[in-house]
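Progress report, Aim 2. The chain analyzed during this reporting quarter is listed below.
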Amino acid sequence: MTIKLDGKLTAANIKANLAARVAQLKEQGIEPGLGTLLVGNDAGSVKYVAGKHADCAEIGVRSIKHELPADATFEQIADAVRDMNADPACTGYIVQLPLPRGIDQNAVIDLIDPAKDADGMHPYNLGELVLHVGGEITTPLPCTPRGVIELLGAYDIDLNGKEVCVLGRGITIGRTIGLMLTRRAVNATVTLCHTGTKDVADHMRRADVIVAAMGSAGFVKPDMIRDGAVLLDVGVSRVFDEEVGRWRVKGDVDKACYEKASAYSPNPGGVGPMTRAMLLANVVEMAERQLH
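Predicted structure tokens for the chain:
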């Protein structure tokens, strides 16, 4: 029987645990606060940021919102980042990407205080992840890869010794998930496929687990996967549904693959809710570190 990896349910359980930890922190005089910097009014970014603040309200974390117009200069954006670095009420924060054209995103990320990097994407924190093959990591972890691993763990899917094929080399997950999957605590073997990979389907057919993060709607077909594979669908594409007459989100995995898989994450409703839950987890953990 194929298992549906329900990200919504798993994220709800995680948030319930986080809410209890937030209450304990408040009893000790620490109130976690999540900051967001939104530049412009991109519909997807506006909706995503609003969802983050709704999550904050759900678990009792303070919301700190910074918004700038689409024509904001680099220095204005940098000033907002510095403000959050200096704000003691802001435990951790994110700069919502993408930034408007002409703004150097990496330069903005470099300005983030690594200790307040709720996305876990600052070069310092990524470097710590590279260095720590084993043992405990006390710096923020990238949210989407962490969400994938937590989702699999919630369903007792062991990755020790498994072959994992990652599709896509984006920084959000493709280039970072291998660092986490190959840590001794997980112990998987990872193949990263991208536009320069010859015969991607051959790599996919050998994999026990496929993490699809290409942003290519329905790319993964049933004839590309082995029987019993585990499918994590992280890709996001907007396609027009002629039957209902509106745009909708579609993942990288064709739904026809589900009956051939042993487990799959739906899209939407799979890794997305887990990413948001891991953002909250990073902020709560940052606050807990203040106690020590």
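The first strand starts at residue 3 and ends at 4. The longest helix spans residues 7-27. These observations will guide the mutagenesis work planned for the next reporting period.
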